[in-house]
Amino acid sequence: MEGNGPNRIARILQADEVPTPTAYFYDNGIPTRKDPPQNPYYWHSSTISKILDNRQYTGCTVNFKTTNVSFKVHKKVYREEDDWQIIPNTQDAIIDENTWLRAHELRANKRRPTALGKRSLFSGLVFCPDCGAKLHFCASRSLKSNQEFFRCANYKDGRGKCTIHFIRNVVLEQIVLEAIRSLADFVRCYESSFLFLAARRNNALQRSAVSEAAQILVKSRKRLTEIDRIIAHLYEDNILDKLSDERFMKLSDSYEQEQAELTKMIAEREEVLKTAEKATVDLRMFLKRLRDFLEINALTPEIVNTLIKRIEVHNSDRSSGHVRVKVDIYFTAIVIFDMPTAQELEKLAVDIRNNREKYGLSA
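Structure (tokenized):
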């Protein structure tokens, strides 16, 4: 969460003389198949990666990660993550699930330093809203720190398929810092309104996704049942010589292919419904983290990675005679949050009184 990758974490642990797992086992008399390490503090990045990807530290148990090739061949093979069985709350958690999930997202979103080894706080988080590409962080020896900037990866000095979407790193830091401060101040003064707006928005987004997924599920399951019945009839007709073997094979292959596609689609839509059920996003957790950073004077990697999910930088607008750049900041739990006006806050007070139970807000 502080912006360090596996290699960097390994170097930090080695510098702090933290014993590796194997060294720890030997020091505490715990049996292990590995030989004692020559350097008990030499961490490998692969070990860090395994620890970061281990979901069981959140207090759950993960089953069916591997299987045997067959009952005769006992070679283990790894199964797809969708086939794992995750049982929550089977042990004390070392780290909360929200933090683990956020760290998992950060690991999937690689952040490469520049040739000089420099990285911005926002590396890997800044995107172009027009083409969807990342904005590259540009730094060089000829640029001072206040001149370092982001630009669209598809710009390529005017020869690419997108416009520049230019913003200086120090300007982006000021914008993000001000946005976090404004949000923290609003939450401090109008916490119930904030919770209500966020819950209402999340519910609206979930309803549309859930409705579409539910409709597709009903149709797909119905079609699966029909295909089972059709294949059974084809088999009977083939047995009774009403259908040639060649024709039977063509038709059955076609229906089985459609069946496989439907099964995949059903699994995807079930995942949407499962995610929607879980995604009553824990706003209380987000609020707790926001309160931790109430009096911030400067941004840190932990603050950015905890609160910011994505930043979109629009192309500059010069229509007013001044250069203006619109920046959209997506927070981790609430996406984009627009500050309500005084009149909107008055209306919200009435809505909150009438809809507390609907949005799961406490009295």
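The CA atoms of residues 265 and 305 lie 33 Å apart. Residues 191-239 form the longest helix (49 residues).
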